[in-house]
Please model this.
Amino acid sequence: MEPLILKGNAYQRGISHGKRFATEIHECLNAFKHESSDQAVMSAVDKTIELLGGTFPEINEEIRGISDGAEVPFRDTFLFNNRAVVNMVDTETCSDLAIQAGGTVVVGMNKDRSCPMAPYEKYFLKKVYPEEGYALITYGHVGRVWGHGMNEQGLCTAGTAAYPLHNDAVVPSFGSYLVPPLLLSKCKDVPEALDLLEQFRPICDSGNFLLCDAAGEMAVVEITPAQRVVRKPDDDHLIASTFFASGEIEHRDNLKHLLESQNRCATIQDYLAKEFDRESDMTLDGMKRILRLHRGDGPVCRHEETGVTTVLSWVAFPETREFYFCVGLPCEGEYELYTLKESQQK
Model:
């Protein structure tokens, strides 16, 4: 896959993104015309734009650049980036994992989407070289500033949605999807990322942030509009799927989804306990075997017949800054190596 290279300040990066995917962005925004004509929705958008302008204005500037590059309205593009502000978030079932053993750290993430895939769900790989801050490599969403991945310091972020019993968001507030690129561009390690994450208040949606750095420090932050729980490693690893594993946050009344999420986590736990060798499997092939698991009621690699499909997968090695990216199903696709140094690109 040819990555999208974004350089310069936030607005310039947005311009490049918008021009590259102008046709696709027009198609994406057409899916939400009914929302952008709703006065209450757009009032929430305007208040949120004002909030970000006073806290992290680079978010607005990058979205404005995307709008100008694609020649579409800024407010519509902002809504497309931050639909959580009006409590309109799609169901996701992603899986994240970080393992540390023998001085080596490896991180993996499968990104899953409900089937049939919505027409606005279009993905790519991006490499970002900001005017200020750290360079980063992440997956990207067409028309959106989102994406988890790794920065030049070896800090990694991965994420899953999760659904609390109560999700009483206020307006204005941050959408959590806007946060990862800022963590990666501004923070060199997990302690700095945890500190910066505290500045994103209030947040209007819920989920898990997995953080890991080159020194092997790792944490999962469980976030809802009302609660935040920091979960530390279980022995040498951390797993996050679409539920709050700390037990400190009450889940919404959807037993089927909760059991599926817990079963997926149990699949990974069982594999780590019985089949994963910390001496020989801390490799790309070792992590791929986990991300490709299809077991029973908790498959990690999701196929359409389950009602959910894995749309992309990645594996990162924070110490060596190697980032491997797979388009589509992990069990069928190839993981290609990308780095932030062009001379090391394969």
